[in-house]
UniProtKB/TrEMBL annotation:
The protein's name: serine C-palmitoyltransferase
Domain Aminotransferase class I/classII large residues, every copy: 167-469
Gene that this polypeptide is encoded by: SPTLC2_0
Pfam families: Aminotran_1_2 (PF00155)
InterPro entries linked: Aminotrans_II_pyridoxalP_BS (IPR001917), Aminotransferase_I/II_large (IPR004839), AON_synthase_class-II (IPR050087), PyrdxlP-dep_Trfase (IPR015424), PyrdxlP-dep_Trfase_major (IPR015421), PyrdxlP-dep_Trfase_small (IPR015422)
MF terms in GO: pyridoxal phosphate binding; serine C-palmitoyltransferase activity
Transmembrane segments: 12-31, 71-92, 476-495
PROSITE patterns with a match to the protein in the record: AA_TRANSFER_CLASS_2 (PS00599)
PANTHER family: CLASS II AMINOTRANSFERASE/8-AMINO-7-OXONONANOATE SYNTHASE, LD36009P
Catalytic activity: L-serine + hexadecanoyl-CoA + H(+) = 3-oxosphinganine + CO2 + CoA
First-tier enzyme category under EC: transferase
Length: 526
């Protein structure tokens, strides 16, 4: 362990976290996640003999990504068996004791909760819901205070115990540490609150357009290297309310299968025809492009009004980085438009924090629509769309987010302005560049240590989103399934173990992933 270059307290905390976990815990996980999956997954046996470097030059060095294959047969069997036991017990219980809760004076009304979703919530999610939604009571910095909760009714409700747990924060998207209550971001935002107030309470097309928002849009355009930028008060709504302004019936959308829910919802609202290509598979994308250009609209056989390729810079569930050069090549070859969602990559990827475009050294003007959010790297809220002036002028008039949604609050805009100024070095310091490089070092260190310990880690080596595969949801929580009890095997459970050791992280399982795709999500290792 002495060969590792630990140059800050955050890396030291991560190092101590691994040293403090019992050896038996890793023996179990090693056997299950490494030996059991050796047939399906290529393992990495890299040895770190020098300090971790900052982001590699993506144009000259091929990115290394864990092979994402199907779940091994034996692991899938045990996963489905554990779910089957839970569901079987649930069906038996509800056969003898059917749910009978009804609202008073509601005779003849349709039940509020019906179907399998309600059954799944009662019999599966209820047992593990304490793993999510834990209230916090501090700034989400490198360390975070989380309120401990417990249940006295077998998971139906969670009550605070009054204890505050001070934890290492590897579960929020505060990639660069700008969400803080000290320093220039805090000071300038507080001053803006005094002078401009908390909120305009109006849309941009009415009385919600302030000078600070125009200044933010000018600086963001300069940072991204584009003609113009438009900002919005909510990141999710940036996709949902703007995609319908760009698409409509008669348009074709080619969407990555792991695109965010906001993209999917925006495409649905638009009424455009959507075809899904395999994750990060540009060959499958080209096949779909050729097929649908040749055959045209499935009903009329006429040419498409518009063809839009939609991808993300970094995919939040997989930790993978899109193949932007290939996407640009296909976009030019088939005369399509390219929409890239940089919610997770802006600020956190590339030598200058410019996102996936900066990471590959691509020309920003080759991407027709650059979308991103301020909720991750900038420690704020809201989103933006950047591109040429014609595009932005169109959105200023046609976007529902401009017409009906409240504009971004002035303190939030100031938070983004200050953090952006620091990233661009306009504050006269190198603090922004240091944050970017520190994030890259921490990400490389964390990923390589996990691989050396035998864990299966998805995603690209430069990605700040680190999914650690567990496959089974029972491993995410503190309860042990009946199947495991029968075999007298007491498994240490990941989230509970991390909480007990002062590490705040997030678990992800079905239906956010496949049934056998449960995983831990480590973010913001900066």
């Amino acid at each position: 362990m002495d060969i590792f270059y630990l140059n800050n307290s955050r890396q030291h905390n991560i190092y101590v976290m691994f040293r403090s976990i019992p050896f038996s815990f890793f023996i179990y996980l090693y056997c299950d996640c490494y030996i059991g999956n050796l047939v399906k997954y290529k393992t990495h046996e890299e040895k770190i003999t020098r300090p971790i470097e900052k982001f590699s030059n993506a144009k000259t060095k091929k990115r290394v990504s864990t092979v994402e294959d199907d779940c091994p047969m034996i692991t899938a069997f045990f996963t489905f068996l554990s779910f089957g036991v839970l569901l079987l017990v649930g069906y038996i219980k509800e056969f003898f004791y059917p749910p009978s809760t009804k609202e008073k004076n509601r005779e003849g009304y349709v039940p509020l909760y019906i179907g399998f979703e309600s059954f799944y919530t009662r019999n599966v999610y209820r047992r593990i819901q304490h793993c999510w939604g834990a209230p916090i009571c501090s700034v989400p910095g490198s360390r975070i205070e989380v309120i401990e909760r417990h249940s006295v009714d077998h998971g139906w409700s969670l009550q605070p115990t009054g204890r505050k747990m001070n934890c290492l924060n590897v579960g929020s998207y505060n990639y660069l540490g700008f969400a803080e209550n000290v320093g220039p971001c805090y000071e300038t935002s507080a001053e803006t609150t005094k002078t401009l107030g908390m909120m305009t309470s109006s849309s941009r097309l009415e009385l919600g357009s302030m000078r600070i928002l125009e200044e933010l849009e000018r600086l963001m355009s300069e940072f991204l290297g584009v003609d113009d930028t438009i900002t919005f008060g909510m990141g999710f709504a940036t996709n949902v309310l703007n995609i319908p302004s760009l698409l409509g019936p008669g348009c074709l959308v080619l969407s990555d299968e792991f695109n965010h829910a906001s993209i999917i919802l925006g495409i649905k609202v638009s009424g455009a025809t959507v075809k899904v290509f395999k994750h990060n598979d540009t060959n499958d994308l080209e096949r779909l492009l050729r097929h649908h250009i040749i055959h045209g609209h499935p009903r009329t056989r006429r040419a498409w009004r518009k063809i839009l390729i939609v991808a993300e810079g970094i995919y939040s569930m997989e930790g993978t980085i899109c193949d932007l050069p290939r996407l640009i090549e296909l976009k030019k070859k088939y005369k399509a438009y390219l929409y890239v969602d940089e919610a997770h990559s802006i600020g956190a990827l590339g030598p200058n924090g410019g996102g996936v475009v900066d990471y590959y050294g691509a020309d920003p003007k080759d991407v027709d629509i650059l979308m991103g959010t301020f909720t991750k790297s900038f420690g704020a809220a809201g989103g933006y769309i950047a591109g040429n002036k014609d595009l932005i002028n169109h959105l200023r008039i046609r976007s529902d987010a401009q017409s009906y949604a409240a504009s971004m609050p002035p303190p939030v805009a100031q938070q983004i302005l200050t953090s952006l100024t620091i990233l661009m070095g306009r504050d006269g310091t190198t603090d922004g560049q240091k944050r970017i490089e520190q994030l890259a070092r921490n990400v490389h260190y964390f990923r390589q240590r996990l691989k050396q310990l035998g864990f299966i880690v998805f995603g690209d080596d430069d990605s700040p989103v680190v999914p650690l595969l567990l496959f089974m949801i029972p491993k995410l929580t503190h309860f042990v399934t009946m199947f495991l009890i029968i075999f007298c095997v007491e498994f240490s459970v990941f989230i509970k173990e991390l909480w007990d050791r002062g590490v705040a992280s997030v678990g992800v399982g079905f239906p956010a992933t496949k049934l056998n795709g449960a995983r831990m999500h480590f973010e913001g290792c900066g």
